[in-house]
Design goal:
- Helices cover 43% and strands 24% of the residues.
- By secondary structure, the protein is α+β, with helices and mostly antiparallel strands.
- It has one domain.
- A hairpin with a 2-residue loop joins β2 and β3.
- α1 packs across α3.
- The longest helix is centred in the last third of the chain and has 15 residues.
- It is globular, with a radius of gyration of 12 Å.
């Protein structure tokens, strides 16, 4: 899979957004106390999704997003 179809982030809010946007969580890894989430997007638009998130153009349903943040936080505490 091309490298640009994969994205790694420790930003839990971006991770929640990517998951809601249809990206697949490939794996997570710990680096000290920080958890990194590695996502893939078969459609190849993961960089566009990241740009939309940071530019404020991303649109998600608030309730679904808050539930996804909680789910990502739970993943941070799984051994």
């Amino acid at each position: 899979m091309p490298e640009n179809d994969e994205l790694e982030t420790h930003d839990i809010y971006l991770a929640a957004y990517l998951n809601l946007a249809g990206c697949q969580l490939k794996r997570r890894r710990r680096q000290g106390p920080r958890v990194h989430f590695i996502f893939v997007n078969p459609a190849g638009e993961i960089k566009d999704l990241q740009e939309a998130f940071y530019s404020g153009k991303a649109v998600v349903k608030a309730h679904a997003y808050s539930k996804e943040i909680i789910a990502m936080k739970e993943l941070c505490h799984v051994a």
